[in-house]
Design a protein that fits this description.
The protein is an alpha/beta fold. It contains four helices and eleven strands. The chain is elongated and about 65 Å long. The termini are far apart. Pfam families: LRR_1, LRR_8.
Length: about 240
């Protein structure tokens, strides 16, 4: 991509606060963007070949949305965690194995999408985020859901298409969790904590494609309580 094209994009971004450059085969984060650290609210560099996010990402202090789907990122810099206004972070289809240590400092984060990466567990850093609404960890290599999940503030947690065979009973203590997606995992019915049904806020539990028949779920104690929440929610949105 020529300099003049990039220049035109930068000029538009300066006016709109949005920099979008997708599917252009970029191998690195455009350094020229640092001229706009105080302008940009949205950066979308999806469908490129970016391998590294430079530390200068931490300078975009007004950034609300960062979208880097389908790149080649293997790690994220700690500087990313300085983005105190960041509400939306989409990193689907990369090669991430973990999140930066200070990830819990992204205090405004509402939507986090990490589908199609190489995470092996639910990152403990997520427990510190107080405004999370949706967390998508589908299509990773997660095998178990640890105790720290009990502190997760999200409303929806998507764990579809992982290799989960164990879930901490603490998941039923999530204060705001309404939607839990666990489709296409490796769960035996005995490994599904019964308290999810009898003693949680969860009103939509999606568990198709595991190692048990769905109708067996209906025989579990607490299923009627779960159905009450399910039906009440359905009415609310009807």
């Amino acid at each position: 991509m020529g300099n003049s094209a990039l220049k035109a994009h930068l000029e538009t971004a300066q006016k709109t606060g949005v920099f979008q450059l997708t599917g252009k085969g970029l191998t690195e984060f455009p350094e020229d963007l640092q001229k706009l650290t105080s302008n940009l609210r949205t950066i979308d560099l999806s469908n490129n070949k970016i391998e590294l996010l430079p530390p200068l990402i931490g300078k975009f202090s007004f950034l609300k949305s960062l979208v880097l789907n389908n790149n080649k990122l293997t790690a994220l810099p700690e500087e990313l965690c300085k983005l105190k206004k960041l509400e939306t972070l989409h990193l689907n289809g990369n090669h991430l194995r973990q999140l930066p240590t200070a990830f819990g400092q992204l205090s405004a984060l509402k939507t986090l999408s990490l589908s199609g990466n190489q995470l092996r567990t639910v990152p403990t850093q997520l427990s510190g985020l107080r405004h999370l609404d949706v967390v998508d960890l589908s299509k990773n290599q997660i095998q178990n859901v640890p105790d720290t999940v009990g502190e997760l503030q999200a409303i929806e947690l998507n764990l579809n298409q992982n290799q989960i065979s164990q879930i901490s009973v603490q998941i039923s203590h999530c204060p705001r969790l309404k939607v839990l997606r666990l489709e296409e995992n490796c769960l035996e019915l005995s490994m599904l904590p019964q308290s999810i049904l009898s003693d949680s806020q969860i009103s939509l539990l999606a568990v198709e494609g595991n190692l048990f028949e769905i109708k067996k779920l209906r025989e579990l104690e607490g299923y009627d309580k779960y159905m009450e929440r399910f039906t009440a929610t359905k009415k609310k949105f009807a």
